[in-house]
Input
Amino acid sequence: MFLSIPFDWEVPMGDLPADGTPRQNDGLPYPPLATRRKLFGGYQVEYFREIRPGDVLTRQRRILDIYARSGGSGSSVFVVIEATYTNQHGETVAVDINTIINR
Output
């Protein structure tokens, strides 16, 4: 299920903001928001083909949506990111959608 883990990269602790999450990851700049921390808001993945040993995967990401909501504990900005994974044959093997809540 954690298809994105091989694509993660290390950031030195001293380069991280107070919430501990990088401002940019894999070339996808995170929008500048007047918030102090990020929270995990959900993860969905849909598989279209089997991923086999020896496959070479690439990932293409884009921001699908950014929206704000107000609740009892204050306002939040939701950033929805879609990642499409393809194999060495150019076939789409999976798509995931990750929601990050910014407070």
Remarks:
- The chain has one domain: 5-102.
- The chain has a mean pLDDT of 85.
- The CA atoms of residues 54 and 88 lie 10 Å apart.
